[in-house]
Amino acid sequence: MATVIEIDWFNTYLLKKCVDDTMQADLEVPITIPNATDVPGGLITPTSGYPLTPGVAYPGQITDSDIQWYIEESRIRGGYNNTATDKGVKAYINEPEPQQQHRFNSLIYSGVYNSRTGVNDTNVFSVAEDLVRSADPQNGSIQKTHAEDTNLIVFQQDKVSRALIDKDTIYTTEGGTQTQAGAKVLGQIVPYKGEYGISTNPESFAVYGYRKYFTDRDRNSVMRLSNDGLTEISAYGMTDYFRDQLALITDNNLNYIVTASLEAATSIANVKLSVESLSSSFENNNITPGMIASLCSDTSVANPVFTNLQGYVTQVKSDGASSPVFTVYMSQNVGLAQAIGANVELRFSYPYKPRVIGGWDIHNKNYVLSMQDTPTQLDKYDKSTYRTLTFDEGINGWVSFKTFKPTLMNSLKNNFYSFTGVDLFEHYDETTLNNRGIYYDIYEPSNVTFVFNPTPSMVKTFKTIDYEGSNGWEITSFASSFTEPNFNIVNSSYSNDQDTTAFVYSYDAGLYTDSITGQPQRAGFDRKEDRYVANLVNNSTVTPGEVRFGADMTGIKGYFATVTIETDNTTQKGGIKELWSTGSDYIVSST
User: Fold this and answer.
1) CA 250 to chain centre
2) How is residue 7 annotated by DSSP?
3) What DSSP string describes 475-542?
4) Which of 200, 277, 392, 415 is the most exposed, having the fewest neighbouring CB atoms within 10 Å of its CB?
5) What is the C-alpha separation between 376 and 382, in angstroms, rounded?
6) What is the domain range of residue 27?
7) Nearest CA among 378, 354, 376 for reference residue 291
């Protein structure tokens, strides 16, 4: 009859067992302790832990362990030179004084893994073998690695290199290089030309085909790595923009420390703060949902200790009084049992660092980059906290700004996906009608900004605006160039003035009924010869020396005009909107 042998240790076997269930009755046979006079040497020594009375029957004291053997053996049947059993997974080395090392610029690889033969040495890191490859430490820590077919690309903070796999490089006398098979898994680390790295933003990395994209925040650059080496793609018309925007991304957690009076917490989980010392912070929108509030009630010590309140800031609200009290609502009760005196110190901080998210949009063949001052866990709808834009290889330029703020994004099987928090969003989904411009269940209108600049050195008056395309476009901004700084003698200050026009409604949004004639009229665009045309009504404020201004004038005057045209919220919201061309009727100014 088969039996299961339980192994207590990797090389210990139960070779013989003499007790089974049929012997259990024998173990329970009562025994009678004889009188002390019947036992040579006196009383019986008790073995059950309690006194034994002579002449009284007790149950048997024999156990399984008394009549079975455990023999430690590493070979089945114990035969000489028989095949030894496997010892299983064990520590490879036992160091008497183990010490942890943080080698920020090194790579290490383990033993081999072969699923067909059952060899698994991925837990083996032999100190007797050369398993470590180190990059130049002056280039910073290794932030990311990317495996290609025959190379391993290593991204340091200030350098990009490639580590050869199973081969080494031989330098010839002519100055060229050749490769040969090497005995080591990781061969030489060969740097790419150019002093660029990935800084501390490995999340900006994206790959498609043989091209890799990433940002070097420390050098205000967006980079592309391909067969021709490193290229600074941020220099394609966007140098100034990325210089300014990447400077906002830091490695520090943003925090604001304010001093205020703190009222008692209530059951609705809020903290009320007085306005005197908080007005500047709240007016500048520094205290926002998603922050963690920390409290220090004793600011007299040199290094006060801040204690985290229980929860995140969910809302900041003013009571609207002449001396308002701001209420900071928390996700949980803050647990303050009573009011704390005045002049306590509060620190509001973001639990996450700013990020630069990169991804590949396989639908449009674009590299998508999102620079986020605050991550999506805090505020994914505040447009002032992020800039998302795309780079197109077809024209070697940056083609569009996006209105979504992703947590993560990438492509899979011809589809482009992004995450917001834990929610997955599929872009370019055409199975649902009228869903264009809707990101994360929020509708965002599309807009195009362009410049009218004919005959650049001549002052012009722009009178009309027209476009060719779909119904549903409106002009949200039409502004001329700035004038020279004007000195105001009243307040001794300078001002830059520019002409602007009134809002131009779309074809449908501007439809109304004339109260006198009862006929339909249009306040914005009207359709003429398959084009949408509208007059420009001046909306500028008076400037020194002007006699007629504002609505009394038609058009605006300047060397050039910057125009923003945008989809409206009424004409087939989320539907297809096309824009082919735009134009403006202008005349040369006589002044």
Assistant:
1) 14
2) P
3) EEEEEE---PPEEETTTTEEE----BB--B--TTTTEEE-TTT--EEESS-EEETTEEEEEPBB-PPP
4) 415
5) 10
6) 19-66
7) 378
Q: How far apart are CA 501 and CA 503, in angstroms?
A: 7
Q: Is residue 534 part of a domain?
A: yes
- 161 and 283 share one domain: no
Rounded Cα gap, residues 48 and 527, in angstroms: 107
The total number of structural domains in the chain stands at 4
Whether 329 is in a domain gets the answer yes
Ranges of beta strands (E only) in 350-454 are 355-361, 366-372, 386-392, 397-402, 408-412, 415-420, 423-426, 438-439, 442-443, 447-452
d(CA 353, CA 250): 7
Verify that 35 and 129 share a domain, yes or no. no
- d(CA 587, CA 591) in angstroms, rounded, equals 12
232 in a structural domain: no
b (16+ CB within 10 A) / e for 371-391: bbbbbbebbbeeeebbbbbbb
CB < 8 Å & 24+ apart, contacts of 394-400: 394/365, 396/233, 396/236, 397/236, 397/237, 398/236, 398/237, 398/238, 399/366
Is the domain of 55 the same as that of 112? no
- C-alpha–C-alpha distance, residues 183 and 185, integer Å: 7
Give the three-state DSSP class for 24: helix
Give the end of a domain, one of 286, 316, 349.
Answer: 349
One domain for residues 169 and 262: no
Other beta carbons within 10 Å of 337? 7
Output the 3-class SS for 319-372.
CCCCCCCEEEEECCCCCCCCCEEEEEEEEEECCCCCEEEEEEECCCCEEEEEEE
Kindly report the CA angle at 54 between 53 and 60, in degrees rounded to 5? 80
Spatial neighbors of 462 by CB under 8 A, at least 6 apart, are 452, 478, 480, 536, 555, 556, 557, 558, 561, 584, 585, 586
**What is the full per-residue pLDDT of the chain (591 aa) written as tens digits?**
555 655 444 445 555 555 555 544 544 445 555 554 444 444 444 444 445 555 555 455 455 555 555 566 666 666 677 766 665 555 555 666 767 778 899 888 888 888 888 888 888 887 777 788 889 999 999 999 999 888 899 999 999 999 888 766 665 555 565 555 555 678 788 899 999 999 999 999 999 998 999 999 999 999 999 989 999 999 999 999 999 999 888 876 656 566 555 554 443 455 555 444 444 545 445 666 667 777 665 555 555 566 666 566 777 777 666 666 666 666 655 444 344 444 556 677 766 778 899 999 999 999 999 998 876 665 666 777 889 999 999 999 999 999 899 989 999 989 999 998 788 999 998 887 788 888 888 888 999 999 999 888 888 889 999 999 999 999 999 998 877 666 666 666 666 677 888 899 999 999 988 888 888 888 899 999 889 999 998 887 766 555 555 556 677 888 899 999 999 988 988 888 999 999 999 988 765
* Pair 267, 333: CB distance under 8 Å: yes
Claim to verify: residue 58 and residue 110 sit in the same structural domain:
no
CA-wise closest residue to 256 among 280, 232, 230, 231: 280
